[in-house]
Design goal:
The structure is a single chain. Helices cover 41% and strands 18% of the residues. It is an alpha/beta fold and 185 residues long. The chain has a 5-stranded mixed sheet, with helices on both faces. α1 packs across α7 and α2 runs parallel beside α7.
Length: 185
């Protein structure tokens, strides 16, 4: 069976449902902003794979300016180093699609934009593999007061589905990390 955009229908996970309804379904972005407000915290995002979709999902929420600092779309590999501070040696050895790159992007945007938390996305949406990395490979970076983390996934579907599913996964990761940080301080 196919979805309205021509992609293959996938199992009904929350991420895939969110991908089908525009990327930030089930009020994920609203829940992120509420959690950040409860902590007097902010978020900034660095995007490659998602090319601005994550920032768009966050700014679609009324009142987003209270918790969203801004974003950097570093689609070109050299910008990941020059703007976000990703290690050039790491990029030279592993390329831009790597979990440590995602973590360093999140750390870089957090510092650059003065946010409490940083989120980052990098990966291959297709339609072709990139530098031997298969389509659907996604790394989401997180940086915050409690440290850094990268979540890696292999997604399936067409380019648009992979990008929207990544947005939902990034928002879910931030919500998860906010919950594990405990109550607001």
């Amino acid at each position: 069976m196919s979805t309205p955009d021509g992609g293959a229908e996938q199992d009904g996970t929350a991420e895939q449902e969110a991908a089908r309804d525009g990327g930030a379904g089930d009020g994920l972005a609203e829940r992120v902003h509420a959690a950040l407000r409860g902590r007097s915290a902010t978020v900034a995002v660095a995007e490659s794979l998602t090319g601005g979709l994550l920032a768009a999902a966050l700014v679609d929420v009324p009142g987003a300016s209270a918790t969203f600092r801004g974003s950097v779309t570093a689609y070109a590999t050299d910008l990941k180093a020059s703007v976000l501070g990703v290690d050039e040696g790491l990029l030279a050895v592993h390329g831009p699609v790597h979990p440590v790159v995602a973590r360093q992007m999140a750390e870089g945007v957090r510092a650059l934009l003065g946010a409490t938390y940083g989120l980052a996305t990098t990966g291959v949406a297709g339609p072709e593999p990139q530098d031997g990395v298969p389509v659907g490979t996604v790394h989401i970076g997180f940086a915050g007061p409690s440290g850094t983390r990268a979540d890696s996934r292999v997604l399936s579907g067409q380019r648009a589905i992979i990008r929207r599913t990544t947005v939902a996964a990034a928002l879910e990761l931030l919500l998860e990390r906010l919950a594990s940080d405990g109550p607001s301080r």
